[in-house]
User: Fold this.
Amino acid sequence: MNSPQDELASPASTPVVPARRYGGLSAQERRDLRRRKLLDAAVHVFGTLGLRRATIRDICNEARITERYFSEHFASISHAYEAAFKLISEQALLATGRAMLQAPMDTLELAKSGLQAFLGFVQEDPRRAQILLVDASSYWRNVTSRNNLELKRHAQAMRYFCKRIYPDLPEHIDLEVIGASLVGATLQACLTWAQNDFKQPADLIVSHLLYAWEGLDRWFHAEIKAHRLAPLSQAAS
Assistant:
């Protein structure tokens, strides 16, 4: 038998009360589910109505969630658009990345595979074009407090492949600037294509964009050659 001192010394065992669950889901799971529904609804609303016409009510009605839950996940309609843009951009990067990883380690082959995958991704669902191209073309120019990190990730992917193909590329060549310019050219060409209701064949758009990559490949090889010859010319002088 335990003494009174033993009873006082050992903490009383408190029964563990499990978190209340509704419909088999915890509070956090329900919160995550609401965010996913709101994000899916945002993609549909922004993709069909466009950023200028979309409202918080439209998104909540599409998600079948009361408006009071919107602010739980998004501070404003702009933040909801950024979340939708981020989702579509990540999906586009995944699609292009997979295609490029399966292509030969050659500049034009990689570019062709990536461009075909990206154009196919956009054309497959017109809502993606509206969010990723049409609205983004004006939105990110007017947002000065935040950076478009998703587009930077696309540029970083190009930088990675460039370093693999051209390991001897001189240090003075700024791959970040080149990557950003190529992404910008691709997005602008795709925007024009989308605004023309995808009338031109995708292969035509790819062939036009490949001109930039062909020029880049020639320039890189010329710079590498000049860099290799530079020490020889200095030694001869």
Summary: The chain has nine helices and no strands. The two ends are 101 Å apart (CA to CA). Residues 96 and 114 are 5 Å apart (CA to CA).
